[in-house]
Design a protein that fits this description.
Helix content: over 70%
Radius of gyration: 18 Å
Shape: rod-shaped
Largest sheet: none
Distance between the termini: 9 Å
Order of helices and strands: HH
């Protein structure tokens, strides 16, 4: 039982560090998306669209890594 709990706590720490990192990435992603929308609005849609697509890719990455970390943590939850 004790080993299972230690393993769960280790996975919980990894999950929390992943979520914390992804929050920082999310803030940077908001800047990227805002830049893309501003460029589209200011008449540079060719460059703005690239920033918007980059923001979407970053959003999908952070969402996927959060889901994988949560699934991994729940898999090792003590019973």
């Amino acid at each position: 039982m004790k080993d299972e709990k230690k393993e769960y706590l280790a996975h919980k720490q990894m999950y929390q560090s992943t979520v914390k990192r992804n929050k920082k990435i999310g803030l940077a992603n908001m800047f990227v998306l805002a830049t893309g929308l501003a460029l589209k609005y200011l008449g540079r849609p060719d460059i703005g669209e690239h920033f918007i697509w980059l923001g979407i890719v970053i959003l999908l990455y952070t969402f996927g890594s959060n889901m994988l970390a949560k699934k991994e943590m729940q898999k090792h939850q003590p019973k």
